[in-house]
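Consider one such protein record:
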Amino acid sequence: MDNVDRAGVGVEVGFEVEGEVGAGDEADDEAGAGTGAGTGDGGETAREAAGDEERSGPEREWDREPHPSDSMRTFGAVVQALREHNGLSRAELGTWVRYSKHTVASVELGRRMPDRAFVERAELALGNTGALRKAARHLTRGEVGLAAWFRQWARLERKAVSLSTYECRLVPGLLQSEAYARAVFDNSIPLLIDEQAEAQVTARMDRQRMMRERPTVPFSFIVEEAVLRRGLGGPQVQASMLDHVLELTAPRNVTFQVVPLWLEFHGCLDGSLQILETPEGRWLGYSEGQQNGRLISDRKEMRLLCQRYETLRSQALNPKESRDLLERLRGEL
């Protein structure tokens, strides 16, 4: 699923956080690693009505970079030095840049990638020398292989107590075989160089480890039959994919269901969807489109998405019927 399934290394685009979240609502991937586009997702974010202002409060864990790069730490040190030279506290700089003092601290400590708005406003607040704009051009993340807009969701996945995925485009990333993943990246536009493709495949396989390392976490997958029949990569790749899906969905904590082609009703026609439950009992969702992703936390919207997922689960083939279909498809190759 995830656009990490398709996107190239280093592509930075808008990752929108929806609904009732804490500090750091702005998309931390809007700019930064040199090629930022900040495309967004239809402008439905909670921060839209209030401009780019961020709510006060401590930084959320999923806003932090798991592996900050040297360039982020260096940029943060420059921000801190300029701030102190101008006699501003973090709270005062936060007022200038319209972000909380916690976000300012995270940027200064190299824990968070600054977005374009932060860089521009900090530049103006700290002397307008051009130093921050120039330094921002060289910012890179320490975590490669994951699309920028998918990183926050990938971090949440690692601690989720349950995870549900509906996919209508590709085999979900957590179930892709290595050969299938390579075929996906071979079809990326623009084309990826070998090093980029290898980083993507490595990230994909590393992400799949949690399927084996967390045997008590419930994983639910619903996939369209058309996805399983698509000949992406050719017969050998399809065979490896079906074998891989059969293997990974065999454990008791994994449920795999297929939406058959002949289904007359469909509860999730609005597109692919992922839902997880946090250790604190909170439900979060993730959806994506071309070159962007959307993290959903609004409780009302999550109730609707959970209802859609449960409806589709009741309409799809049951797990035994789905496994029988997988085996038939495998036998046809």
About this structure: The chain has twelve helices and seven strands. The CA atoms of residues 9 and 145 lie 6 Å apart. The chain has a mean pLDDT of 81.
